[in-house]
UniProtKB/TrEMBL annotation:
Lineage: Bacteria, Pseudomonadati, Bacteroidota, Cytophagia, Cytophagales
Domain Nucleoside phosphorylase span(s) in chain numbering: 32-266
Name this polypeptide is given: Uridine phosphorylase
GO biological process: purine nucleoside catabolic process
EC class: transferase
Naturally occurring in which organism (per UniProt): Echinicola soli
InterPro entries: Nucleoside_phosphorylase_d, Nucleoside_phosphorylase_sf
Catalytic activity from the UniProt record: uridine + phosphate = alpha-D-ribose 1-phosphate + uracil
Length: 287
């Protein structure tokens, strides 16, 4: 017998929508494009044939509609893996929990989720303006100190290597993205890479503005890691959280990155919106 999840643990709003996302199950498509910036949602839904739903709460903005006849949701998450933990849990609840009975549904529904986000490159050969699909992601944040999950030997070895290289007091978590989405979306225009997900934009990515980072050489340290040919390529702030939550909850997830900064050559793209738009068009066609 499936247990009843108490009201304090999974919060439903008086109108039947889920607490933070403000969505009812019927508002959601099973293929979802996610972005950090709420303003990017409209940049994507402008290409839809029609929009059936627009909902916003906090940083979570959702537009659901069709693109060339295919039903899609576009959703913003804000920044950071703490937001992704909330986002993925509530998204999953919309399809895998009966919100009336508060019980887990007997039949699991798998969502297809593609992140379209910006990112910084830690490799000279991946210039600003490149598009990168994350094969693996390593979380330098502590999200997975609070969940248990199954890791492959390779994922554990990568986590160990990163812990040793950065001399951290915990093992960073590593997960692989969806192979099927990677095969669909990592085509000629997109380079395959591995992503370091950081708990911040400045110090945790080795940027010095007024505060000195504790690991000023974090880029060199991360770029030097080689685990049987595995190498890290880029920085951002959500991908490992997506891959961890996707694996634990049983969803297909892929992160696509528009490289706006190269941290080795110190270049920043002239027109970040144009690079993001290139990635948006690519994702809409391939998802
Ligand atoms: C930092 O500027 C933000 O940009 C990247 C990082 O992951 C972080 O969220 O992604 P988005 O462009 O999707 O927000
Ligand atoms: N997003 C990040 O998190 N880092 C960058 O360098 C660029 C975008």
């Amino acid at each position: 017998m499936a247990k009843v999840i108490p009201a304090s643990e999974l919060i439903i709003n008086p109108d039947g929508s889920i607490y933070h996302l403000n969505l009812k199950p019927e508002f959601l498509a099973s293929s979802i494009i996610t972005v950090g910036d709420p303003e990017r949602v409209g940049m994507i839904s402008q290409y839809f044939d029609q929009i059936e739903v627009k909902v916003a709460k906090r940083e979570f903005v959702t537009h659901t509609g069709t693109y060339k006849g295919k039903r899609l949701s576009v959703m913003s998450t804000g920044m950071g893996t703490d937001n992704i933990e909330i986002f993925m849990t509530e998204l999953d609840a919309l399809v895998n929990i009966d919100l009336q009975t508060r019980k887990i549904k007997p039949k699991h529904t798998t969502l297809r989720i593609v992140r379209v986000g910006t990112s910084g490159s830690m490799r000279k050969e991946i210039p600003a303006g490149a598009l990168v699909a994350s094969n693996f992601a390593v979380g330098l944040d502590t999200l997975m100190q609070y969940y248990t999950a199954d890791y492959s030997q390779k994922e554990l070895a990568i986590g160990d290597a990163v812990q040793q290289s950065l001399q951290l007091g915990f093992r960073p978590y590593c997960f692989e993205g969806s192979k099927s989405l990677l095969n669909r979306l990592c085509t000629n225009e997109v380079v395959m890479g591995n992503t370091a997900t950081c708990p911040g934009f400045f110090g945790p990515q080795g940027r010095e503005v007024r505060l000195k980072p504790a690991l000023p050489d974090i880029i060199e340290r991360l770029a030097a890691i080689d685990v049987d040919g595995f190498q890290l390529t880029n920085f951002e702030m959500e991908t490992a959280g997506y891959y961890a939550m996707g694996k634990m909850l049983g969803h297909e997830v892929l992160s696509l990155n528009a490289i706006v900064a190269n941290r080795i050559t110190h270049e920043f793209v002239d027109d970040p919106a144009a690079v993001v738009n290139r990635l948006i068009r690519h994702t809409l066609e391939g998802i």
